[in-house]
Amino acid sequence: MYIIPAIDILNKKVVRLREGDYEQVTEYDVTLEEMIERYQSYGTNFIHIIDLNGAKNDFSNQQYLFDVIKKTSMQVQYGGGIRSIEKVKELLDAGVQRVIVGTQAISNPDFLKDLSKSLGSAKYLDRVVIAIDVLDEVIKYSGWMESSPIKLMDYVDKCLALGFFRFLCTDINKDGKLGGAGIDLYKKLLDHSPFIKLIASGGVSSMADIDSLSKIKVESCVVGKAIYEGRISIEEIKNWNLESLVTI
After folding, report:
1. What is the pLDDT of residues 138-174, one digit of tens each?
2. Is 133 a catalytic residue?
3. Is 67 a catalytic residue?
4. Residue in 58, 110, 126, 133 annotated catalytic
5. What does the radius of gyration of the chain's CA atoms come to, in whole angstroms?
């Protein structure tokens, strides 16, 4: 299992939200560029960047984020406000390693089918990450402000049938609280579909949480607030990733 450091951006500032609530935001005195440079200097080669403005249909951050991403040699997993097939392809062609799609895949019933057809090959489908943001097994979207009537496992099955097999699952109950990862939720997903590539997100507070996620065979996990709050060091992430010997 691989650890992917997370950087959430709101109004061009590095932040973390608690339970996805834009009213419960913590700002950090560091820029996106500085965080990327810090991770890169420690040998990290994969990073997770989320545009929180884009997640709620405010695209004022996008050009700034795209400019920063184009300048880095790091592999980037990017999400927030990806609303069209053209934008997915633009990002992939520009060198973004993985593009996360969430709201559009939920709110537009034909989006994933059209995206699968447009991308075609498994090589490109592997670079699309389906975001599943879950609160008490209900899928949330639009910055976690809307609820989907689609059942969680039915949605996973739909994605798999269209060729998408990498999922980023955020347990909203855990997110931003540093209270531990949503092990039970991830186990349910992996029990349902053992062959999916699952990226865990939310609540990771220590290397013990990382170890617990590794034991249930998630592919990788995203860590954000625990780094900023000094619970997990960048050195620990580097050492874990080197020892994991996982290629992502």
Report:
1. 898 877 778 889 999 999 999 999 999 999 998 887 6
2. yes
3. no
4. 133
5. 16
